[in-house]
Specification:
Blueprint lengths: L10 E3 L1 H7 L2 E6 L10 H13 L8 E5 L3 H12 L3 E7 L4 H10 L2 E5 L11 H11 L3 E3 L6 H18 L6 E5 L4 H13 L4 E7 L4 H7 L31 E5 L1 H15 L5 H17 L6 E6 L7 H12 L7
Length: 325
């Protein structure tokens, strides 16, 4: 898998959403990447940098803490280059993502949570510990690896600018590691400081407060489970200076709007993509879009990765019941 086949994903106008919000709404469809997610971008950059700088030797093992998509990107690229992969995922990871990782050849370890390096039971702590105690293993560490931001600064941002012919007025994306919104946001702000860079996270996540006053809550509480986004710590790959505002949404409303959007358009959205749609619905009045705005929504992956979490009931209803003869 090379840089030429990762990125340059299409931007498609969504007529349904454009009509609903009376503006021009486009979707950046990252599921056209080989691993069907935006995480192929930082996976490639992190692996290339590690190999070029001698952080890993031929035949070694790339290690990552992932909600699934970055892990899959690393696994696919590493395998092509002759390396192994060990991916630490939390127990909340979707069945589909775990199945994809196993099919791709990753060694998987399931952890209690993804609460950061301070938690002994987290994916991040256990991934770091594993890499530190194994010969020729390298922890790519997407939460603190500068290549995460760089991948989107060099790729996603320029693509958005070119594909909208410099007319983009708003970029809205879910925030997990922070790499996408930070890298793309930096690039777009350098081209036009008036462009609004808006993030979306679950209720209870800490990045909204951190963006507002650069502090964390006195007590961190669990946040709504929206796979791929939301944190109870501030990742090093989150650049608050590149982001204008972060909106919060709840998990149940996000699931509901994913199903509604499928019924309206026939498209399966990923969990964090649905969170962006939920954000639009909840905050449309505050966003105050103009008729000639060019709003780009970032859809980092495909809904087929979340059938068990978002669409199971709908698909079950389509299957004829089995009657005992």
């Amino acid at each position: 898998m090379t840089a030429t086949v990762i990125g340059n994903t299409p931007v498609r106008k969504c007529e349904t959403l454009s009509a609903l919000y009376q503006t021009n709404i486009f979707i950046k469809e990252e599921f056209h990447n080989p691993g069907m997610s935006a995480k192929d971008r930082p996976a490639l950059f992190m692996i290339q940098e590690a190999i070029a700088s001698g952080k890993i030797r031929p035949g070694g093992t790339f290690v990552e803490a992932s909600s699934g998509n970055t892990g899959l990107g690393i696994t696919l690229i590493a395998k092509q280059l002759g390396y192994r992969s060990k991916i630490f995922v939390s127990k909340s990871c979707s069945e589909e993502k775990i199945a994809n990782l196993r099919c791709a050849g990753a060694e998987i370890e399931i952890c209690e949570n993804s609460n950061g390096l301070h938690d002994f039971y987290s994916t991040q702590f256990r991934a770091q510990s594993y890499a530190a105690t194994q010969d020729n293993a390298y922890f790519t560490n997407q939460y603190y690896n500068t290549q995460n931001i760089r991948a989107h600064y060099k790729g996603t941002g320029p693509e958005l600018w070119q594909q909208t012919e410099g007319k983009i007025t708003h970029f809205i994306a879910g925030v997990g590691t922070g790499g996408t919104i930070s890298g793309a946001g930096r690039y777009l702000k350098e081209r036009n400081t008036a462009i609004k860079i808006w993030g979306v996270e679950p209720n209870g996540s800490v990045l909204q407060q951190f963006l507002q006053d650069r502090t964390l809550p006195e007590s961190v509480r669990p946040y709504d489970p929206i796979e791929g986004i939301g944190r109870n710590f501030v990742p090093g790959s989150f650049d608050a200076d590149a982001v204008d505002e972060i909106f919060q949404v709840d998990g149940e409303s996000t699931k509901k709007i994913a199903r509604e959007y499928r019924n309206q358009t026939g498209n399966l959205t990923g969990f964090s993509s649905a969170a962006v749609l939920c954000c639009l619905e909840k905050y449309a009045d505050k966003m105050n879009f103009k008729e000639d705005d060019v709003v780009v929504l970032f859809f980092p992956d495909h809904g087929s990765r979340y059938v068990s979490k978002l669409y199971a009931q709908e698909f079950a209803a389509m299957v004829p019941s089995q009657k005992t003869l």
